[in-house]
Amino acid sequence: MVLSCRLKAKRLTGGKVELLLLNQNQNDNRTFDALIKPSRIKIGEKIIFDGGKIYGTVSAEKQITFSTASINTIYNLGMMPLPPYIKREPEKLDNICYQTVYAVNPGAIASPTAGLHFTKELMKRIKSKSINLGFLTLHIGYSTFKPVKSEDVTGHRMEKEYFNIPESTQRLIEEAQYKKSRIVAVGTTSLRALESYDSKMKDGYTDLFIYPGYKFKLVDCLLTNFHLPRTTLFILACAFAGNKLIKKAYQEAIDKKYRFYSYGDAMLIL
């Protein structure tokens, strides 16, 4: 579940400040890792929220400590952090539409967008066809928006993201392997988690970077959105289906004016 929050505030000088809350500090629930704009704000500087009713102090680089410990108070000040390529202000409807219908555990900075295509009714239809649905926890990090800048793809550093595969899903995976049934990953991050599970990881942080040449061990099919070029998400899709097929699919999407990115269309790679 997306727990991140975008906040607008002011400096004591009156200048505008924008923050994207990332992770809450486990030892101090008033402190968050955050992306802060402008970046020139100094450590120790106070930032005013809600007309001065609440303030925060930049307690370290990319970190803010609030004057209140109430998580609800802090999040009620903010708005849903839509991806940077959506060039509009968040709306109330985004609080519903930018969460998957099966979101439970808070902690993600962004929604696993392939899951946005599912409704409760669709999931019932899938189950009615004797298809098993397995769930896992994904706390997608800010690296999902980080472009690949190095000319050599192997030079890109993949940031770690948390995942947890519960025992119920582990049993479904083992059953599928025993019966030689196909395993479908809903989204690139789910695929990374499942491939990490094949390496005996059930819970923790994975920095698995999948690019062409990778040998897939667990996942047979992938449902994924159409992604930005030069992203790890696009590169993973190329690794899964091959550069030629993915480029052909993207060209068709462009020709037929499909919608790209988070609220966009998806493709099923079999």
Report on the architecture of this protein.
A hairpin with a 2-residue loop joins strand 5 and strand 6. The chain folds into two domains: 72 residues, QueA-like (Thrombin, subunit H), CATH 2.40.10.240; 176 residues, QueA-like (3-Layer(aba) Sandwich). Helix 6 packs across helix 7. 24% of the residues lie in helices and 23% in strands. It contains seven helices and twelve strands. The chain is of the alpha+beta class and 270 residues long. The mean pLDDT is 90. The two termini are 27 Å apart.
What would the keywords be for this entry?
single chain; 270 residues; alpha+beta; Thrombin, subunit H; QueA-like; 2 domains; globular
Would you spell out the secondary-structure blueprint of this structure?
Layout: E1 5-11, E2 16-24, E3 31-37, E4 46-49, E5 54-60, E6 63-66, H1 71-76, H2 94-97, H3 120-128, E7 137-139, E8 161-164, H4 167-179, E9 184-186, H5 188-197, E10 203-206, E11 221-225, H6 232-241, H7 243-255, E12 266-269
Helix pairs in contact: 6-7
What is this structure, in a nutshell?
By secondary structure, the chain is of the alpha+beta class. It contains seven helices and twelve strands.
Structural class: alpha+beta
- The number of distinct structural domains comes to 2
For the biggest sheet, the summary is:
6 strands, antiparallel, barrel
User: If you consult CATH, what is the topology of the largest domain?
Assistant: QueA-like
CATH superfamily of the largest domain: QueA-like
> Given this structure, which CATH class of the largest domain is correct?
Alpha Beta
Task: List SSEs in N-to-C order.
Answer: EEEEEEHHHEEHEHEEHHE
